[in-house]
Specification:
single chain; 42% helix; alpha+beta
Length: 172
């Protein structure tokens, strides 16, 4: 929803930018917001994200903070390669926490009621090829909205009841 964009941009601004500030053409928060919108619109691959960004309506680009190009009468958009390189370099845990906080912010204001949260662990497929070890994630999900509130790499697979309590910043 358009009224939720400022809150999303505020939370995405919490993710540290891994780039040297010299020569940065696109703000990290803008690239992350464009990518999030593309995925929410159904993009399932980086080429699809790039196509969505290219075809995004001017009103959406303006709301997300995409700056106009100083030389041409259009907005300066990040290319698919830029999105891919940047997504490969950002701190995934920081992004995960920022998105989780934004989702928690949205839930907190909705009805003030407490809702049950399900916790489950999964092993990522194919991750061992890139990192040399299997990655095991413990995730907390809000089943009313179908949202993942937070997830944590727990290092090794074990019974979920053995993991220490993982609390998000939205909890008292």
């Amino acid at each position: 929803m358009p009224e939720e964009i400022p809150g999303l941009l505020e939370r995405l601004a919490e993710v540290p930018d891994p780039r040297d500030p010299r020569g940065v053409r696109h703000a990290l928060v803008v690239v992350l917001a464009l990518t999030a919108c593309a995925v929410l619109a159904g993009a399932t691959s980086l080429p699809a994200v790039g196509e969505w960004i290219t075809d995004a309506p001017p009103s959406v680009l303006e709301r997300l903070g995409v700056r106009p190009d100083p030389l041409f009468p259009k907005r300066c958009l990040p290319a698919e390669a830029t999105v891919q390189r940047l997504l490969g370099r950002i701190d995934g845990d920081a992004l995960d926490q920022a998105v989780g906080r934004w989702l928690a912010d949205r839930r907190a204001g909705a009805d003030g009621q407490l809702h049950a949260v399900a916790v489950d662990g999964k092993t990522l497929r194919g991750a061992a090829r890139a990192t040399g070890r299997k990655i095991h994630l413990l995730a907390a999900c809000d089943h009313i909205n179908g949202l993942t509130l937070a997830q944590l790499d727990v290092g090794e697979k074990a019974n979920e009841s053995l993991y220490p309590a993982y609390r998000t910043s939205a909890q008292p």
